[in-house]
Amino acid sequence: MLTELRIQNFAIIDELRLEFGPGLNILTGETGAGKSIIIDAVGLLLGDRAAGEWVRAGAELARIEATFTLPPDPERAAEIRSLLEAEGLDDPDNPDWVVLSREVRLNGRNLCRINGRSVNLQLLADVAGLLVDVHGQGEHLGLLRPRTHIHLLDRYAGLLGLRAQVAERVAELRRVRSELQRLRQDARTVAQRLDLLSFQVEEIAAAHLRPGEDAELESERRRLGNAEALNNLALTAVGILEQGDGELPGAIDMVSEAVGRIEKLARIDPDMAPRADEGQALLEQLSELARTLRDYAEALEFNPERLAEVEERLELIANLKRKYGDTIEQILAYAIKAQQELEELNNWEARTADLEHREETLLREVGALAAELSEKRKAAGEALARQVEQELADLRMARARFGVSIEQVEQADGAYLPDGRRVAFDGAGIDRVEFLISANPGEPLKPMARVASGGETARLMLALKSTLAHADATPTLIFDEIDQGIGGRVGAIVGQKLWRLTGAAANGDNPVAHQVLCITHLPQLAAFGDHHYTVSKQVILEDGEERTHTVVRTLSPAERIEELMAMLGAQSEAGRRSVEEMLSEVAQVKGGALMLG
To answer: If you write DSSP's letter for every residue of 474-515 in order, what string do you get?
Structure first.
């Protein structure tokens, strides 16, 4: 639901903040006051082309911001959340709200945001299109996009369960075909791949690699390559510890003499006994160090042959790393994967035959289920056409005709139908569904996208919305120019139908609650509003110049009566009584005591 709309420096609007409520929201006011400009502002969020001329004179940029709550329909809410999460645009602190905004600068540059984060225009339009439909100008109507028609028809007819079964079979068939395509490579490519995989598996296996082996070999190579220097260093250290340098005794002898003196000291002063123990421990550590260094020097080997072996082994490992992975673990993992692919390719003929059999089975299963789905769609399409034509008759379009085109396209590798034909298919079945309309007698049915815009289109959309109310999950519907060419009696019927779209009808025949915004000049239609706003313009002197401002006010019950009287052109007590009678009749309709038609 659209809860708030902010417009800044857009056309003749300098600053506007509108709070909308649930149900039917009515906007009225004199021509040129800016009612349609408000709709144009919403159109920018839906992807309309924006140019610098939209920016109010004297300003640098125009800004539109709309705040929505997610719809109660769980499927549509999940669709919106999924789209936001996929793009990293969800707001964990306000998971049930979406804020859309767009800035237009004088140079024509745009900045689009969702929940405060910059996005491209297409993504903004995609999200906005899930939240709002604008009816009247024909540019943003989800109902004018043929790709939505099949989904609306299926929801209308309660066929989503059967369609899900078709989609499940189609998904499996696509997986089978994908694997078949991989296996059905030409024989030469398969043979080349077999040779390559065999060589790679054998090369890695012949190396007998062991995880961590390369690190051990690197350490051994350093020892072997520096054996002489290591031996000299170790023996020199031993000499210093045990023998000294000729002038001074060895470190061990010197420490031993010092320890002896400390022990004598401890016999005189027992408090020094711990120091004597420490000295003795140090002497033992130095002796152990000397033995360790001597053993290390004796273990060192001057073995050029072993050094060559180590370097050759390291070169082999480096060569394998260049081909198959940065570590021995990655090389071994590649070998396992290559072996699996090798086994699959060795069995590719048998696997291909199995998959081809499964493909044929699935093509027949898809065809059978999709044919059943298609027959039910045809029956539902006829029922839908009758209902829409009845709605159109109520709206003074009694001679208009509506139809649902359901066609299939033959395809050589398509699904098998019971009659033997093979047709194209996708996750929605075998049908290409499109709504058709003929607004005038003698005219053939044509795709709805080709119908004229304006009031006639808006009434057509209203008829469809009324019929498909439970199937169309778009939460906010905006109607502009819907009252063109109709009088008061039909206006009241239009008002009733708009109100019923909100799901507030007492008989509960519309389980999906839409929020509806409508701009109208007809008091009979406006009387059905749950919230009434009046749009006016004021000329204010600014810096010595006259500037036009658009003002929108929410009407109180008393102000609403005055506005409806003005719309009737009856500023008299008789006019007041007429308005009060009209509102009383509307109240009876809303209470279920009266039905217009």
So the answer is: -SEEEE-STTTT--HHHHHHHHHHHHHHTT--TT----SPPE
Q: For residue 313, give Cα distances in angstroms to 73, 221, 326.
A: 66, 11, 16
β partners of residue 429: 426
Distance CA 568, CA 115 (A): 43
Other beta carbons within 10 Å of 229: 10
**Quick one: which H or E segment has residue 524?**
helix 523-526
Contact 133, 125 (CB under 8 A): no
Nearest to 237 by CA among 170, 302, 293, 184: 293
- Alpha carbon distance 451, 438 (integer Å): 8
* 348 and 183 Cβ atoms separated by less than 8 Å: yes
User: How does DSSP classify residue 272?
Assistant: G
d(CA 404, CA 409): 16
Question: Would the CA dihedral through 266, 270, 274, 275 be positive or negative?
Answer: negative
- Cβ 59 vs Cβ 15: under 8 Å: no
Hunting for tokens 């804020």 — which residue is that? 99
Residue 595 has pLDDT above 70, yes or no: no
> What pLDDT does residue 506 have?
44
**Closest C-alpha to 469, from 158, 150, 152:** 152
Question: Which residues make Cβ contacts (< 8 Å) with residue 277, sequence separation at least 6?
Answer: none
Token couple for 198: 């065999």
Instruction: Return all residues near 28 (Cβ < 8 A) that are at least 6 apart.
Output: 35, 519, 520, 521, 526, 532, 533, 534, 535, 563, 567
Triad 437, 41, 537: Cα angle to 5°:
110
DSSP 327: S
| Structural contact between residues 425 and 170, judged by C-beta atoms closer than 8 angstroms | yes
> Which residue is it, tokens 């081909």?
323
User: Could you report the per-residue pLDDT of 520-533, keeping only the tens digit for each?
Assistant: 889 999 999 999 99
pLDDT tens digit sequence for 121-136: 999 999 998 999 887 6
Residues 227-272: pLDDT tens digits?
A: 667 767 777 777 777 776 666 678 887 888 888 888 888 888 888 8
At residue 510, what is the residue type?
N
Query: Phi, psi at residue 546, to the nearest 5°?
Result: -80, 130
Report the distance separating Cα 480 and Cα 277, nearest Å: 101
Alpha-carbon span 280 to 18, nearest angstrom: 91
Dihedral (CA of 277, 281, 282, 287) sign: positive
Q: Where are the alpha helices (DSSP H) in 6-132?
A: 35-45, 74-86, 121-131
